[in-house]
Design brief:
Rossmann fold; 6-stranded parallel sheet; 3-stranded antiparallel sheet; 11 strands; globular
């Protein structure tokens, strides 16, 4: 691996695609829920229940125990609102601006950190949705609305003290997030983002493209597979994979940097 080769490719790229997983937020202080132990360290009350992340991040809790469901998502909502994006976000944002704004973000994160860091809302594809939007649990309409709720949580009992409701029918509201085993996700917002992403890719398919992947693991490989597919299919695209533990990559697709997100971003953009 030549860091100079990576810097040269990014410096001369005509467009930049940022692909990001949970590891992108670690340097901002956000948990990445890596493994059951990591998830339980972040949420000791859920450890007492013996629930894994995949079990907790399931829409059935909004039906069976909405106070538990909203304790989990309400706490996360408050955490994301309080967290400031690390300086790596600004470096990426400014480099895209220097390219005339020719950039896009593809992320599995639901935390809204890219918007908070000043990225163009119309150039972000949140493939798993966003905690900052709500939908009706009963899907009484196709409505998706901004999450302006303030949800206090009793952390001792891990119970939400307020349950958001659909303003149309009064049913429990849930985050507009694609969860595990989720057949009720309202995909309208995500599909609109995906269409904009596809149009951006089509416009840039013959241009020199730098794909900068940060913190995308193999447990939920959506982001990794997207970047690899684009690097393999476009003639002038290279993937730079930044990951401290799972940096392996087919060298025909690009390069690997076995380090944390902010460190890797600073190394290639300085």
């Amino acid at each position: 691996m030549s860091i100079e080769a990576i810097r040269e490719w990014v410096a001369n790229a005509e467009a930049i695609l940022v692909t990001a997983g949970a590891g992108m937020g670690v340097d901002s202080g956000l948990p990445d829920f890596r493994g059951t132990e990591g998830f339980w360290r972040a949420y000791p009350p859920i450890a007492k229940l013996g629930l894994h992340f995949e079990e907790m991040a399931n829409p059935r809790w909004f039906v069976e125990d909405p106070k538990l469901a909203w304790a989990f998502y309400g706490h996360r909502l408050r955490l994301y609102r309080q967290t400031e994006p690390h300086r790596g976000f600004a470096l990426l944002r400014d480099r895209i601006a220097a390219k005339g704004g020719e950039g896009f973000v593809f992320t599995s994160n639901v935390d809204g950190q890219f918007q908070k860091a000043g990225f163009d809302e119309k150039a972000i594809d949140e493939v798993h949705g966003s905690i900052h939007y709500l939908q009706c649990l009963e899907n009484c309409s196709d409505a998706i609305w901004p999450n302006e709720e303030e949800i206090a949580v009793d952390m001792e009992r891990f119970r939400a003290l307020h349950i958001p409701r659909c303003p149309r029918c009064g049913a429990v509201a849930r985050p507009n997030i694609l969860m595990f085993g989720d057949w009720g996700f309202n995909a309208a917002r995500s599909e609109a983002q995906a269409l904009r992403f596809e149009a951006w890719l089509a416009r840039n398919r013959t241009r020199r493209l730098a794909i900068i992947e940060i913190g995308a693991g193999t447990a939920v490989p959506t982001v990794r597979r997207q970047g690899e597919a684009i690097a393999a299919s476009l003639p002038a695209a290279k993937l730079i994979r930044i990951n401290p533990r799972e940096a392996q990559i087919d060298p025909r697709l690009g390069w690997r940097l076995a380090m944390g997100g902010m460190e890797g971003i600073e190394m290639i953009l300085r």
